[in-house]
Amino acid sequence: LQVIITAKTEGLRREMDGVKKRMDAMEKQSNGVQSKMSSMFSGIKKAMVAAGLAVGIQKITSEIKDLTKEALGVDAQIANLSRTMGTGKAAFMSWAKTGAAAFGISEQAAVKYGNAYSNLISGFISDTATSTAYTKQLIEASAVIASRTGRTVEDVNDRIRSGLLGSTEAIEDLGINVNVALLTTEAFKQLANGRSWEKLTFQEQQQVRLFAIMEQSSKKFGSTLAGGGATSLMMLRAQLENLKLEFGRAFAPLAETVIPAVTNFVKVIAEGVRWVSQFFAALRGGAQGTESNLEHAAGGAQSTAAGLKGATDAAKA
Q: Which pLDDT score is estimated for 310?
């Protein structure tokens, strides 16, 4: 019986021996991959410490990016002013850089509101020099109103903008009326020349609203900022915003070099984690194809470790 059983099960035993050998080989390979993974992570840890970014990496990049992002955003808005202001852009930017601060308006805010107003005004006034002049006057008026009502400049600008668009409620809170039934301004009388509101063209109606806002603003609030601490704070805030903008512009060329190096460093770290993920996925995959998958993960880990030094040196620099 023993001879017969041995003869009958010899093929099975051979298969079992082969499976055991393959499992032993897989275990050795797995241990080898684990060793490579550990080595890679050790290298990553050392690299982060060496680069001085183990804790501060996010803070460093975010603060530089915030400054430069704002500066680049302002420059993009300035470029857009060419479309709405034409040749008047140079004069407006000269005022935005030097004169606007006297009204508690930073360059960044002046450019922002300049884009908003000039976009609207250029729709009904074709002369760019005239459109630019009115834009500047509206921004100055908003600062005067803000200083005398205790509102923020941004809030006042939003209300004036809504008034230009024909909305009455928001701007009426400032004491300025653009309600068609109550328009008795000199601008309306001159432009209408005896005609009713409905007889005016769209461009004429928009001009009436614009002139009505400026006329009422001048009569109710004057043309100079109110004194006091609130106005002083407005002017201080404008200068601080200008300082921040100039820092952003100063860092912009630097960021073009620094941020890509740090980004590449983080990319290499992320690549290492990806190979670890593939390593565990290969272990879960069963015997089918596991050896080749493990070898693939090991090779990726080695490549990552090899590329780590260059990325670290660039980030550190």
A: 67
